[in-house]
Structures are given as C-alpha cells and as structure tokens.
Automatic annotation (TrEMBL):
InterPro entries: YpoC (IPR048427). Residues 6-114 form the YpoC-like domain. It holds the Pfam family YpoC. It comes from Bacillus salipaludis. The lineage of its organism: Bacteria, Bacillati, Bacillota, Bacilli, Bacillales. This is YpoC family protein.
Length: 120
C-alpha cells in the first residue's frame, strides 16, 4: 500500500466506469450481465474499505468489519444484502451509496490525520 490517496483515486476512476456500465445494464434490464459488473463493484468497495482503514486486503471469506474504524453505518447488513442479491437494481443503488459514504469517510480521515500532525 504505497500511496493510499493514489490507490483510492485509481479505484474511484474504476468505480466510475463500473457505475456507468451498471446504469446502462439496469436501464436495459439486463440482470444477468449486471451481476458480473456488480461483483466487480462490490470488490472495489471492499478494497476501498481496506484502503481507508489502512489495512491490507487478505483474500478470505469473512471481512473483519469490527476492526474497521472508518466504515458506513450498518455496513454488515447493507453489504450482505448487496452480496446476496447482486442482480437487483436496489443493490446497485445501495452499493453506490456505500461508495459515496466511504469516500466521505476517506476524506474525513485524511483531514483528521493531517490536522493531528505536529507543526514544523
């Protein structure tokens, strides 16, 4: 995790591409293809969650939500819903909201971290 801000910038650009594709697929009611793109979006969100909390991602079935300080409210229930039903438009909307909330938390963390540095 060399530069978290750079990694997040790249991740958010990738999310924008995924989001545009998902909007098109849901507009066309193409749930089958939307599912694959949703899985990519979910993976990006999980990666973002780890970056924000300065944790390294480890490929495992369970996400250690309790060890994350910067996370959206009700993350376990919301992400569980999305992962159980990736083909639903409602899941896409929820994932989009989680990305927005996580981005705000990332910015908040950066501000807190910057203000807590000792002055030169």
């Amino acid at each position: 995790m060399d530069n978290p801000a750079e990694n997040v910038s790249t991740l958010l650009k990738e999310w924008e591409d995924v989001k545009i594709r998902l909007e098109q697929l849901f507009r066309e009611r193409d749930q089958k293809n939307a599912k694959g793109w949703m899985e990519k979006g979910i993976a990006l969100f999980i990666q973002f969650l780890y970056y924000t909390n300065e944790e390294s991602t480890t490929p495992s079935d369970s996400i250690p939500f309790q060890q994350f300080y910067f996370k959206p409210v009700n993350i376990e229930e919301r992400l569980g819903f999305i992962m159980d039903r990736p083909g639903l438009y409602h899941s896409y909307r929820q994932l989009s909201e989680l990305m927005v909330e996580q981005e705000k938390l990332f910015v908040k963390k950066a501000i807190v971290k910057k203000s807590s540095r000792p002055k030169a």
